[in-house]
Amino acid sequence: MKAAGGLSAAAALGGAGVLASAAPAAAAGDGFGLRIVDHNESDPRMWYYRFATDAIGWDPGVNVLLPDGYHTSGRRYPVLYLFHGGGVDQDFITFDRWGIRQLTAGKPIIVVMPDGGHAGWYSNPVTSNVGPRNWETFHIAQLLPWIDANFRTYAEYNGRAVSGFSMGGFGALKYAAKYYGHFASVSSHSGPASIRRDFGLVTHWANASSAALDLAGGTVYGAPLWDEARVSAENPVERIPSYRNKRVFLVAGVSPDPVNWFDTVNETQVLAGHREFRGLLGQAGIPHEWHEEPRGHIFRDYMFRRDLDGVIARLRKA
């Protein structure tokens, strides 16, 4: 799934800015299994880094969007981790292309936007034929503590939120449940919330897309047999109690895409999964905010603005 427009059959469920003329690699700030190989801190707000890490077989990029006044305020800020979707045109630059600077202008929050692979599914894959592609390790064990060590953040549960579009929305739901103490708010913008429904359609798609785009035949969940424990551990509808005491925000489209058949199929599956997930949250007495919006599998900036205001209200104040 990806942003407005079609999704090729080769792309993954999911929906990415590099800053020009990067400065020489920094000597300081390395650690947590990361080594800076490229960076640019010349922009007042958008800082760019590229890391070498044993978790990933190439050097993933990260954009860190700072709030207005960060350099002079001396304050600490909450952090939103924002994940892109899948597809060959999706990476850490996606949200800069989609206007994240304008969407966050004047908002007292740091936004971290990392690479997640064309079809990485925010996972450590069961098999890979191209070397390590351990995105979960990179995001949770390496990048998150690196951000807290190098920026003025609140390194605590009430200081972090996670959100994403499409494949990234799934990643947000997955991380929020699997790493309960890391994130006080979770948002999924057209991201799958149920990966076993309809004979495991989303799980099959995760395997097929990762095999085609990222892993040279390897898979996220294992093939021909899944790692069933892995699927259950990462399936939001099987982790309902893990969403207690969190802010939960869900958006899905309800109208067929008039142009792209594939996006229509994607969003139909997302919508059904969201309804299943919402029903289970309701049965468990877990509050959540949900929206079913016109059109299909697209990133809705007006919904992101609403989500961002809710994130800031839930997290510790700057």
Automatic annotation (TrEMBL):
This protein's superkingdom? Answer: Bacteria
Q: Which SUPFAM superfamilies match?
A: alpha/beta-Hydrolases
Renumbered to this chain, the signal peptide range is: 1-27
Task: Show the Pfam families listed in the entry.
Answer: Esterase (PF00756)
Keywords carried by this UniProt record: Signal
PANTHER family in UniProt: DIACYLGLYCEROL ACYLTRANSFERASE_MYCOLYLTRANSFERASE AG85A, ENTEROCHELIN ESTERASE-RELATED
Write down what this protein is called: Esterase family protein
Q: Which organism is it from?
A: Streptomyces hazeniae
Lineage per the UniProt record: Bacteria, Bacillati, Actinomycetota, Actinomycetes, Kitasatosporales
